[in-house]
Amino acid sequence: MSVNPSAQARTGGQILVDQLRIHGIDHVFCVPGESYLAVLDALHDADVTVTVCRQEGGAMMMAEAHGKLTGRPAACFVTRGPGATNATPGIHIASHDSTPVLVFVGQIERGVRERGALQELDYRAAFGHFAKWVTEIDDARRIPEIISRAVHTALSGRPGPVMIALPEDMLVDKVVCADAQAAQEIPATPSAAQMAKALELLSQAERPLVVLGGTRWSAEAVEDFARWARASNVPVTVSLRRQMLFPTSNESFVGDLGFGPNPALVEQVKQADLILLIGSRMSETPSQGYTLLNIPVPKQKLIHVFPEATELGRVYAPTVGICATPAAFVEALVNQSLPTSESRSTYAELLRSIYEKWSDTQTVVTPGQLQMAKVMDYLNDRLPSDTIVCNGAGNYATWVHRFYHFDGFGTQLAPTSGSMGYGVPAAVGAKRIFPDRTVVAFAGDGCFLMNGQEFATAVQYQLPVIVIVVDNRMYGTIRMHQEREYPGRVSATELRNPDFAAYARAFGGHGERVEKTEEFAPAFERALASGQPSILHCMIDPEVISPAFTLSQVREAAMAAGRGRV
User: Fold this and answer.
1) Res 348 pLDDT > 70
2) Is the pTM for the entire model greater than 0.85?
3) Do residues 30 and 52 make contact, with C-beta atoms less than 8 angstroms apart?
4) pLDDT tens for residues 162-188?
5) Residue-averaged pLDDT of the chain
6) What is the greatest pairwise CA distance in the chain?
7) Which end of the chain, N or C, is more open, meaning fewer C-beta atoms within 10 Å of its C-beta?
């Protein structure tokens, strides 16, 4: 980069903000800190949307949600030390979910390093294991170079979070330097030979099954692949919390491989003679504890498509490994038709019938006056097709994953890392980016209070998200496992909760309590009509631990298996 001799000197903070705009980063989520005041000052006059959050974990999750929905990184700014460590859950989510994010963190002045200065932290040591790259800028003249590398790194291969530490005194240095040019996403495409081999294997297979996951998809790729799969009579499933990659209305959709999947689908994955794995790593949860594919050599033929070469063969040895983005692979595939196959069509019809039976809400009746299956029926009928549905982690999310009709790209925000507390900040971040779309967040009572303070951010920016708090007065998932392993010995899983509807009103939003099925629809309509951020506090029977079984059934099965205390 050459420097214009007449260029004006700028502070490090101003140079940094200028680079964000060059790279198309127009959203900043932050909790302010004195360690990066120079950046905050530069943002004052910049064409950048700034969202001030209530806790760094929430800010980071909002930035991660932006990356999930757009495929482009937002910026999250946090202050040094505890500010950075508070952001850790969101960084971990971005790492596991392959989401591009830039994390900027304040740092102590350069001249007092290694003295144990206030909030001093070695970010490379602390975050190097799960951020994609961690660095620190010592010279303000290198800001354009390092931000350019950071954006390229966050976007390329398997995307992920990049952390950049900003010494406080570096940000106020005035220097002359040239700007970078806008970073471009580096493509990864399949070769003609790879596509020919993949198509040969697909044509020969009698029971092929597609598993979709990961990132670096596009709306066009999702639509194109859905058409190809239907025309080819190939059954398609999705990995954990990636249901927005294939429409549930498509006859080729056969369910998801997440937490508590359809046992019949799991068995059929084992019976498939070919797996086409696109974008997914087929990690622990979608592989059901690494049991669906043998390691290192699966018994099924495996075509594995992934944008990072080091992931191919890392766990599963593929028959054909293709280093390509999902979007590039789909582009090369969609004009290639498979020959008609009666066995393939029969297999696809079988798996679809299995899914339709599994997702039929009419067969699900649970204890208590509030039937979550009926709630999902109402939401499927009521919500626009482009609604963004968010959730964190917990058994309550099973209702969403099993029964909600995801029908388009960019409609789902949920952590594959299994992190609690994600739904509310993700919803706020989504509504900040897409103010004209309906955004609904699901949260358990335990999940909500991990980042429920970000409801205040929704109120501050007048973002009318609707949060459905499913309250069973316990950490439900842990209680389920507890009853399975130590039946009848309840310890550290019970909760005494606040009135979440009153909580919403205290923050300046709309809140209602729902105890019966017939109360939900009117309460939801009033929440929509209010135009305010809303919480619907939904009380469910503690027995309702899953659509498939009750808490008592878990306990009784464990006792019958001899796991009770002698």
Assistant:
1) yes
2) yes
3) yes
4) 999 999 999 999 999 999 999 988 889
5) 95
6) 83
7) C
Q: What are phi and psi of 21, to 5 degrees?
A: -65, -40
What tens digit of pLDDT does each residue of 468-492 get? Answer: 999 999 999 999 999 999 999 999 9
CB atoms within 10 A of CB 295: 11
- Render pLDDT for 367-379 as a digit per residue (tens, 0 to 9): 999 999 999 999 9
Question: What values do phi and psi take at 145, rounded to 5?
Answer: -60, -45
Distance CA 219, CA 258 (A): 22
Structure tokens at 514: 């729902």
Q: Comparing C-alpha atoms, which of 403, 200, 190 is closest to residue 312?
A: 190
Name the nearest CA neighbour of 383 among 431, 439, 432.
Answer: 439
Give the mean pLDDT of 52-70: 97
> What distances in angstroms separate CA 466 from CA 58, 274, 427, 469, 537, one per listed residue?
17, 42, 8, 10, 11
Phi, psi of 557 (to 5 degrees): -65, -40
Q: How many Å apart are CA 230 and CA 244, to the nearest integer?
A: 17
Task: Locate 60 and state its tokens.
Answer: 């980071």
**How far apart are the C-alpha atoms of 444 and 429, rounded to whole Å?**
19
* Alpha-carbon span 532 to 549, nearest angstrom: 36
Rounded to the nearest 5 percent, the helix, strand and coil shares of the chain are: 40, 15, 40
Evaluate the CA torsion angle 213, 216, 219, 222 in order and state its sign: negative
Mean pLDDT, residues 323-351: 95
Cα(381)–Cα(120) distance, integer angstroms:
53
The pLDDT of residue 49 is above 60 = yes
Backbone angles phi and psi of 180, in degrees to 5: -85, 175
Q: In this structure, which amino acid lies at residue 87?
A: A
Q: How far apart are CA 156 and CA 162, in angstroms?
A: 12
Q: State how far the Cα of 426 lies from the Cα of 415, in Å rounded to an integer.
A: 10
| pLDDT attached to residue 178 | 96
Query: What b-and-e string marks burial along 211-242, b requiring 16 or more CB atoms within 10 Å of the CB?
Result: bbbbbbbbeebbebbbebbbebbbbbbbbbbb
Residue 296 preceded by cis peptide, ω within 30? yes
**Given pLDDT bands bounded at 50, 70 and 90, which one contains residue 4?**
low
Q: Is the torsion defined by CA of 424, 257, 246, 352 positive or negative?
A: negative
pLDDT recorded at residue 566: 41
Average pLDDT over residues 5-27: 92
- The yes-or-no verdict on residue 525 having pLDDT over 90 is yes
Structure tokens at 375: 């709630």
Nearest to 285 by CA among 96, 95, 64: 96
- pLDDT tens sequence across 101-144: 999 999 988 887 888 877 778 999 999 998 999 999 999 999 99
Q: Which domains does the chain have, with CATH numbers?
A: 10-175 (3.40.50.970), 192-358 (3.40.50.1220), 361-560 (3.40.50.970)
- What is residue 7's predicted lDDT score, i.e. its pLDDT? 76
| Owner of token pair 């599994």 | 358
- Taking only the tens place, the pLDDT of each residue in 195-249 is 999 999 999 999 999 999 999 999 999 999 999 999 999 999 999 999 999 999 9
SS3 assignment, position 166: strand
CB 229 within 8 A of CB 236: yes
Say if residues 550 and 544 touch (Cβ distance below 8 Å). Answer: yes
